[in-house]
Amino acid sequence: MSREPNAQLAAVMDEAKVSNKGLAKRMRDAATQRGTTLGTTHVAVQRWRDGSGIQPPTAAIMADVLGAKLGRRITPRDLGFFNHSQPAIPQPIGYPSTVPDVLTMLGGLADERAEAPDQLAIADVDLSSAVLSWMIARPDGVQADRPAHQRVGMRDVRAIRDAGSMFMQLDFKYGGGHGHKALRHYFRHEVLPLLDASYSEKVGTALFGAAAEVSQLLAWTAYDTGNHRLAHRYLTSTLRLSQVIDDRMFGARILGNLSHQANYLGNHAQAIQLSRAAVEGAKGRATPRAMALNSAMEARALSNAGDPIAAGRAMNEAERHFERAGMGEDPGWLGYFDSAELMGEICHCFRDLKMRRESVEAAQRAVDETDPKYARTLGFCRMVLAQSHLLNGDLEAAVTTASLALDGGDTLQSSRFQRYVTDFQTEVSTHATNPTVVAFNDQVHDALARLEDDDE
To answer: Please, what is the Cα angle at 373 between 439 and 166, to 5 degrees?
Structure first.
């Protein structure tokens, strides 16, 4: 089968003035510095230039070395990799079968650095197997009062939850890229060792719950920075942690997060399956507020898949559950999901369904109600409002709103927010000569340059 030459890779190599042999050597050296081995040769580089596929970790190293040569950030997508005509290779999920297995997996993940943004593809059969395992498996239970050098108490659990809350606020305010490294270190050295210590059944159950919350946040921060494979492995491991203590409400939240990620990546069928598993798996075991979140994730998936009838039903269910939100005792991790957050999910649905009037009204309400401390959420809602104005043909309002979003979000280390912005730039590209669009594009360029400076 003939392939199209990779013109983007060739162009960047030409700009960097690097040969096939030179690039191969730089990649091998970079891999060695990271403690790994890469057998890249000039022959492999030529194959990639000719249009062959590449493994995501290898593409990330290539992007890093070319970026270092040029003095600016380069991504695998900039090099012509992982576009729609070249899908990522499906990755096995590896749902852990035992408690020691999941703790070993989490220890390995905590030793991994978040690298350049990557792609993710999961085989449907693997995903279905993991979901089914969670749905039907019996809880393991904690091993209480076993001999160990350290005894854990509720004070240790409270400390973990307080730390998790602090990192969550950083995530909301500055994006996943800001605290991921520090959170990974905390999880590896302060949380995981406690799971092998001695504790009562009550403390052990609370401890596993707190550890799952930190693991989930590690997944979310990785997802927000575009490290989709790492995020997915954290999420599936966290799902297995929830099974240990039979926390169906938190497990359903993890399925909702997996749905959110699949939806973001355009895997609509998987997103729908995961969100529906969250709804069904949490029935009778979750508070109304949690059920509202689960139904909102289903509505997001159905809207992005272009099913207005089913999406409308899911949105109505989310709102009905939320009307009863004060009737249940919610866990601390759910405290962020207020009426503004629900409206933020709904405005995304209306935008995806191209419901012009409803999308503007819902997005404006979400912007008005969102607490500024949730800077990333506010940025998302403003960008949805901007896109909604475009749906209504109001270019001036759209660009003005997008500019406000960028002003408030230009310190966010979030590849998701950057994608909202670049998607909007694509949508207004037909008006490229319009002065307001030109000014906005200049603003985006300056904001990205500041972010790159902050990373140095």
So the answer is: 130
> Is residue 132 one of the residues assigned to a domain?
yes
Give buried/exposed letters for 108-141 (b at 16+ CB in 10 A, else e).
ebbeeebbbbbbbbbeeebbeebbebbeeeeebe
Phi, psi of 151 (to 5 degrees): -110, 130
Give residue-wise pLDDT tens across range 90-135. 555 667 888 888 888 888 888 877 665 666 767 777 788 888 989 9
**Do residue 213 and residue 238 come from a single domain?**
yes
Is 103 in a helix, a strand, or coil? helix
What is the per-residue pLDDT across 166-223, written as a single tens digit (0 to 9) for each?
A: 999 999 998 888 889 999 999 999 999 999 999 999 999 999 999 999 999 999 999 9
Of 49, 79, 109, the last residue of a domain is: 79
- DSSP 3-state helix, strand, coil percentages of the chain (rounded to 5)? 70, 0, 30
Alpha-carbon gap, residue 180 to 442, rounded angstroms: 29
Query: Whole domain around residue 120: which residue ranges?
Result: 90-246
Q: Which of 79, 103, 120 is the last residue of a domain?
A: 79
Contact of 7 with 80, CB cutoff 8 Å: yes
- Reported pTM: 0.79
- What secondary structure does DSSP assign to 364-379, as a single string? HHHHHHS-TTSHHHHH
**Largest alpha-carbon pair distance within the chain?**
72
Rounded distance, CA 287 to CA 417, Å?
30
How many CB atoms are located within 10 Å of the residue 151 CB? 12
> In this structure, which amino acid lies at residue 38?
L
143 and 12 in a common domain: no
Other Cβ atoms within 10 Å of 1 Cβ, number: 2
Q: Are residues 37 and 114 in the same domain?
A: no
Q: How far is Cα 172 from Cα 357, in angstroms, rounded to an integer?
A: 29
| Residue 261 belongs to some domain of the structure | no
Collapsing DSSP to helix, strand or coil, 151 comes out as strand
Within-domain flag for 364: no
- Strand (E) or helix (H) holding 413: none
Sequence-distant (≥ 6) Cβ neighbours of residue 412 within 8 angstroms: 174, 175, 375, 376, 379
Instruction: Report the 10 Å Cβ neighbour count for 42.
Output: 14
Cβ 192 vs Cβ 107: under 8 Å: yes
User: Does a structural domain hold residue 163?
Assistant: yes
